[in-house]
């Protein structure tokens, strides 16, 4: 197969110690959500892109997973510490915008793609009203300042996506 993929649900647990027992005396905590991580690399095909996708419950309690994934991937791609922090905050802000209108109990998807010297991060969630984020808001200004380039789209099924494009070595602001 040309495509190598690692995928599958990863149970998310809270309060587990390294020995697998719960942090409380009540025994092991049960899984409270399912996180899914997919990694794809299509080797030897020109013009293709590697990607990492993280899917998790559309709830603020899980955003720390995306902040950590963002920082880790950007660090591995040799972004500077300032660029890593900018991306981490931008992903958090984009998710916060989506969570305001996300369908309760739905899944938030975050796809990371390396395109030349830029990292594209697209966060998506099914929404109740299918409205694109307003671009004349403070939150959108913050996203643009942190990421450089920001786009949004709405699919026919009312899934709203926000894409952030951060170029390595571009510094703050538009790339």
TrEMBL record:
It comes from the Bacteria. Residues 16-29 have a biased composition (Basic and acidic residues). Residues 1-29 are annotated as: Disordered. This is Putative anti-sigma factor rshA. It comes from Streptomyces clavuligerus.
